[in-house]
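Sequence in, structure out.
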Amino acid sequence: MRRYRILAFDGGGILGVMTLVLIERILEEFPRFVADADVIAGTSTGGIIALGLAHGMHPRELRQLYEGKASTIFRDSWADDMLDLGNMVGANYDNRGLEQELRRIFGDTTLGQLKKNVLIPAFDLDNASPNPQRRRWAAKFFSNMGGVYGDREVPAYKVAMYTSAAPTYFPAYEGYIDGGVVANNPSVAALAHALDTRKQPTPPALNDIALCSMGVGQSLRYIDGDRLDWGYAQWARPLVSILINGVMGVVDYQCQQFLHDRYWRLNPAYPAQMNLELDAIDRMPYLVEFARNVDLATTLLWIDRSWRAPDA
């Protein structure tokens, strides 16, 4: 049977620069690495990367969005901080700079006009159902694969805005927030999506699927202490990271169990004590240099053996 390939990208703000450099390096060895993907999934910054690649952009072009426009995207001012009471009651950044750049990149292109199938998680804060028994928030997975739940007419730049509206960093966008709250690693969601008969009448067999999952790098964080008698104030800052990283670990475990050697996770660890925030734009040179020095030998071997495996 034909090998069915899924490429998935984690969320992580400006750390997506590191992911893009890794893709560039892989393409130097395997020029068809992205072109051979049947589905490209991505969350938050990974969603922007996925949409850009599906639009036909080279990762080097996408890097220019981060390296050349980061100061526009993560733009703040003392006046804004005053209005937000030092970000206690408002997002860190306005999202108009990001929207401007995404509209420049994608224009009026819809999901249905992209060159590749995509899966982009977001979270709908209110489905606005007229039936009060059905009105609720829920995860939303944007896709261009058709079927009864297809989103082919939705502009790509809007989906990029939905998936990257990280709480506290950016305001919600048209009622959506960052897909990272439900699937910061979208690998299992993409796997389920590929097997969904509503999306494609003859989905691939599980044994024919290869999945390459790419992270934004692991910060080696921990909380010291055997008995943390903490309340809201102490848990508020670390809890989001704990929940997101914990769920991503579960996704990694699930993919390993489902796909075995047809699954690969590339997510290198940063040096100890190197904790990088999603808006660390001053660390972009470090991220580029770090990615250039990641050992890709085993990743390239997996791509050669499992991703590029000849069709039966």
